[in-house]
């Protein structure tokens, strides 16, 4: 079943426009960075006024923009090269985006930790079905069968077939 599903995904894969995805995600993350920079500027005491958003805390904007753009570009390019859209693309893109703070700070531990941390978190998030979960797109019967797979059936022993009283009498 898994092999036929993978073959189906390969034959129906549509290439992503890496440049468009990068620009869209970069713009979204730039906006988020601008918001956080404005919050930082508001909470600090200084005499730069409203332009402090760009002059004092503007690096927050560029950091968010770079991380979002790196993630989108890597995910799109990985999906296009592999001809499939799965959790591995997100894990690879998360690793690439997580490297940015380490590169900026010239710190190998931060580079490796960011790669591992963001790669694992985003890979697991994508693998688990994003916000919809694993049961998204399944019929009610398939959902019920999947859930019943976790419930232990009465009369079936999972550890030892002997009862605790028979162990005590044998000693």
From TrEMBL:
What is this protein's name?
4495_t:CDS:1
The record's section on Pfam families has: Tim17 (PF02466)
Q: Which GO terms describe its cellular component?
A: mitochondrial inner membrane; respiratory chain complex I
Keywords (A to Z) from UniProt: Membrane, Mitochondrion, Mitochondrion inner membrane, Transmembrane, Transmembrane helix
InterPro entries assigned = NDUFA11
PANTHER family tied to this protein: NADH DEHYDROGENASE [UBIQUINONE] 1 ALPHA SUBCOMPLEX SUBUNIT 11, NADH-UBIQUINONE OXIDOREDUCTASE SUBUNIT
Q: Which domain of life is it from?
A: Eukaryota
Q: Where in the cell is it found?
A: Mitochondrion inner membrane
Q: Which residues cross the membrane?
A: 108-125
This protein's major location comes to mitochondrion
Q: How does it sit in the membrane?
A: Multi-pass membrane protein
**Which organism encodes this protein?**
Ambispora gerdemannii
For the biological process aspect of GO, one term held by this record is:
mitochondrial electron transport, NADH to ubiquinone
